[in-house]
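Review this chain:
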Amino acid sequence: MVDAFPRSIPLQIPPLENGDRLNRYEFERRYNAMPHLKKAELIEGVVYMPAALRFRSHGQPHSSIMGWLWTYTIATPGVELGDAPTVRLDLDNEPQPDAVLMIEERCGGQAHLSDDDYIEGAPELVAEIAASSASIDLGDKLRVYRRNGIKEYIVWQVFERRFDWFYLQNGEYVSLPVEENGMVCSRVFPGLWLAVDNLLAGNMTQVLAILQSGLTSEEHVDFVKQLAKES
């Protein structure tokens, strides 16, 4: 006997493709259906899927940034570090920054973790490893981060040996000043100091030595006390 109303065949979930124009919900639906996919981002409603990552132009500098930020994090209770986490910013933007540093919500942070363990809202600091100044990191992504209120934005252009650390001021990103000793200091995370020239030269011993000076500074001690008071 043939059914008068045959069962419909379930539709397969379309795969993510570079250049797809989606909202955040459809982006997540397709992303979750592709467990083998390591990284995909939604920027201004457009899907970006990076090519395989090279070692010296991405993997190595990424590990240097993570080591610097991790050292700060373990000395600063109330601050959390994420390695390439998905961030739900708005309906058209769900980036996956190379690194995220954020103040815990219980300590007054502006972002929070959703019930399904994603970051929602704007972390205080994000960092990206960029191939060059032509990268999306200094174009659409910069504008998205600024518009959503990410307070500090780091872009390391590896090929050009350039390191930009932006601070959100009056709705615009401005470059943090470089001190006479070549050091740049965070405005949001007291004690987060970076010897930029040493980082670019691969001298991580000196990078961590300068950071250690920041971690023993009075401003960092006061920041840790403030976080504890907020929690």
